[in-house]
Amino acid sequence: MSVDGWNTVLVLGGIRSGKSEFAESLVTDAPVVRYLATAPEGDPEDTEWATRLAAHRARRPGSWTTEETAADPRRLADVLASAEPNETLLVDDLGGWVTVLLDPDHQPADDVATIAELAEAIRGCRARVVLVSPEVGLSLVPTTPLGRAFTDALGAANRAVADACDTVVLVVAGQPVRLKPVATATGPAAPATVPAAPATATAPVVASLADTEPTPEVQLPDVLTHTPPAAPNQEPGNPWAAPTMALPMVATGLVIQPGMELPMPDEYAGPQAVDRLATLDVPGAGLGVLDRVVGFAAATQGTSTPQAWGAVRVLLLHGDHAGGASAGTVAGESARRAAQARAGRGALARLAAESGASLQVVDTPAAAPMEEQPALSLDQVESALRYGWRLAEQAADAGVQLLVLGACGAGTEAAAAAVLAATAGAEPPAVLGRVITDSGEIDDAAWMIRCAAVRDALHRTRRSPRGAKDILAELGGGDVAVATGVLLGATARRVPVLLDGPVGVAAGMVSRDLAGQARHWCLLADHGGHPAVRLAADVLGLTPLLDLRLDLGEGANALVALPLLRSVLALAAALPVHPSLGGDGEPAPTADEPESTEPAHTEPEYAEPGYPDPDFAEPEPAGPGPATTGADEQQPASGWRAG
Fold it and tell me: Any idea which residues carry the catalytic annotation?
């Protein structure tokens, strides 16, 4: 969106709307930027808030200077009034400024007069100024006096600053819309407000950016998305009135962007299921820490008596990372593991067969050396996200009740470490596990090469944006990008995901900026002793259920724990209430286990250009000889393939 000709701009938006990124994009052409940070440091024990502040700081280029104004709210007006004409100022944000303004340490104070002073300083400012502020007036009226005081003061500040600025932009779900001055359209029938893109008869469209410059059409492949059933009083042609969440669609395909609103698990069913466990007729104290499995299953199934997962699908993502990330690995080893899984051999395939789970191997594009160049292009990231989403949708359409996510590429641990360093501020040596050779020896030289590769990649991208898609392109690679798409697609279709290994938790870290709800649909069975998994689990709020320290390969570790988790759910559903609490001591009636509706070979109804249809290695009884699935036939050398 172009806002040429401005001197002062106010950028409004909700939480995670992309307002700060948009504001930063307006000043990228300035040789020097004075970044005025208004937010207080907050509680030192609030690690999530500290992580947010660290992410903001890491995103700023090295040529910018940062000034803290949280100590005195009136200092912001003084800085603006004294700025020189050749300077560029970025104020982020007015929400933090109002928070400090209302702090008891600054009372008594005339808040109205202070806001008026700020607006007057903006009018007289000779420098270019971009101000960021949250828009909180669209939500419910707060129930506490302090909350009402904050929203009232921030609303008054936004009105005063908007009146003083040349241009006002509202960012909604990453899409900027100009509010002031109002964009006009040419022609005799030009509307008085921001023009919207015309609707079509086949699909709803997203409103175009309010700008006088035409936006080039981006061609995206068709996407098969879930359409919720129409309510009795709902018109069939109006999907926006659906009773459940429907993702925005443009005429060319699915839009995956920051700030998506995806479903959340049932917040009441989980606690009810855990409370019910205390009433069951058991001789001991109960399930211990495994009661979290029951709570998770209850929340994701929407019932206080969840059933054990019947249909399970394992997604094994195969994608190598070039450069120092793969130091210490044998060339071709990951391809051998993938081919082994396709053929129904190896630990993962055997465990899948024992668990009655289907196994799907997905080949993702190889990532370039991240220390030298971006691992993927942004176009590849978009395709990878959509492809991962489709894999999750295909599983949901086949009746899958649980997805198990794993990976087998060379260099995946280093890529995950780089993603953690970019998203959580971790130090590479602290999240990179030891390199173990095939003979069981520790290779410290290879470990140091991996650390250096991650360090150099972070140095190369120190001035790059830290958005989700930017991190995937610069550091993550194809496997992490596809895994992120899987998490988003599974969340949209309410399918829980059992994570296993660095790739899955790295995808969970990235998915926070795209849809924060995704982590609530994830379960971590075992951390495997991996430092990256430990850190990411702590940030994501995922407590590992077990501490077995298994190292059978991503996906296989989770399948070892799966029978135990199923047993816990089956037991919790079948046990009666204790007689002392009114139970009759008879086993509770249980529903028949739903049979998997997965066909032996699923033909998807869609295909990404250049992506062959995925094949599956279905579970087979363990026998003396390997089973063949026909998936080893020759496949195209380019693109992705899943077998």
Answer: 554
